[in-house]
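As noted in the main text, all predictions were made from sequence alone. Below is one such record, for Lactose phosphotransferase system repressor.
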Amino acid sequence: MLSEERHQAITAVIHRRGTVTVAALSTELGVSEATIRRDLDVLDEAGSLRRVRGGATARRGSVRPEADLRSFADVAGSATAAKQSIAARACAQVRDGEVIALDIGTTVAAMCPLLAERSLTVVTASLAVVRSLAAAPGVDIVILGGLLRPNYDSMVGTLTESALGQVRVDRAFLGTAGVRPDGAVLDSTPSEVPIKRGLLEVAAASYLLADHEKFPGSGFLEIAPLSRFTALITDRSPLPFDIVLPEGEDVEVLLP
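Prediction:
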């Protein structure tokens, strides 16, 4: 990760949490504590945060309102009609007996109620997915262990990546923070990016689930080009802007 990307990520974490330790940032961003200390010193000098012993805190007035700090469960529970229609289209791609991987996105989570009566094996690092499908009689769940991100109910880190590398799935369903006009699929959480890339690597077919608000959405970390996916499942066509893929690359678009 480039230093500028780390600085943006650290600033975002500080604005969400108010206070964070060097150790926590080191684990979440996957870099050494010495690197984090240098980053915090630079950001402190720039006025982006206040350096304290063992970590950093937000400067007065820079912490986001509590209403913006909703948990994954809160967000997933308020899935829009667009996300629900995308989830239904995604589930239509699944065949009984398959092994599928479900990412942590809220649109992906909306697939769970529709899969509860199916006969499947589900691989996931999302505890929200696990809870939703735990009682499903025909669903076997493979949980990817690792470091817990409590606010998003997801597992990340070296252990998660290692476990993911040992499985193969028929289909993977991923969410995104945004998609740029050049087709770059984005995320805003550094620790999630290796997991998403890993899902693409182990899947025979992969699907990006993104409603119209994700064009361009947000995010500053590139996961993969859109052409890396088997299909884009979205709720609206034409999209809010034209996606221009490199010559020779394309992606199928599936609508509800």
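Residues 62-78 have pLDDT under 50 and may be disordered. The chain has two domains: 3-66, 72-254. These features were considered when defining construct boundaries for the mutagenesis experiments described in Section 2.9.
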